[in-house]
């Protein structure tokens, strides 16, 4: 945790450090005794902002490890200002998206996390562009 001062000169130790990496933040939240359900991410349906309990919300001075249900009733999305009712549970960080029954279909692609899917899609696209450009060397 970092210690910042407000304009009045008083120290504010409630603010989490922004230099914590995601695994360290998850470990810190686990040390606080959060259950896996409390670690679920919530996504704003209006703008796509994702609230992660392991990181908290620096703009509203919400400490890391604060579950979504424990946020104040007047808390709003820091990006678009939507209320808590506009957020939907998207599950824990790094979990494959989709219904559990459908994860076994396909060539194993359904079990990939969203980040892995992005790497696969854009990596294949870049490789295709590279092959296309290499055709100019076949004179």
TrEMBL record:
Region feature (Disordered): 1-37
Keywords on record: Electron transport, Iron, Membrane, Metal-binding, Transmembrane, Transmembrane helix, Transport
SUPFAM superfamilies with a match to the protein in the record: Rubredoxin-like
Any one GO molecular-function label of the UniProt entry: electron transfer activity
A GO BP entry: alkane catabolic process
Annotated ranges, domain Rubredoxin-like: 39-90
PROSITE patterns named in the record: RUBREDOXIN, RUBREDOXIN_LIKE
Record-annotated membrane-spanning stretches: 119-138
Entry's family note: Belongs to the rubredoxin family.
Protein name as annotated: Rubredoxin
Phylogenetic classification of the source organism: Bacteria, Bacillati, Cyanobacteriota, Cyanophyceae, Nodosilineales
């Amino acid at each position: 945790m970092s210690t910042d001062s407000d304009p009045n000169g008083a120290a504010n130790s409630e603010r989490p450090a922004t230099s914590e990496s995601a695994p360290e933040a998850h470990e810190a939240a686990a040390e606080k005794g959060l259950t896996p359900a409390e670690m679920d991410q919530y996504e704003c349906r209006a703008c796509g902002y994702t609230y992660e309990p392991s990181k908290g919300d620096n703009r509203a001075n919400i400490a890391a490890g604060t579950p979504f249900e424990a946020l104040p009733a007047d808390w709003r999305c820091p990006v678009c200002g939507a209320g808590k009712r506009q957020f939907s549970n998207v599950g824990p960080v790094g979990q494959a998206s989709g219904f559990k029954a459908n994860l076994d279909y396909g060539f194993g692609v359904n079990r990939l996390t969203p980040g892995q899917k992005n790497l696969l899609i854009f990596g294949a696209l870049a490789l295709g562009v590279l092959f296309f450009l290499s055709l100019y060397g076949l004179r």
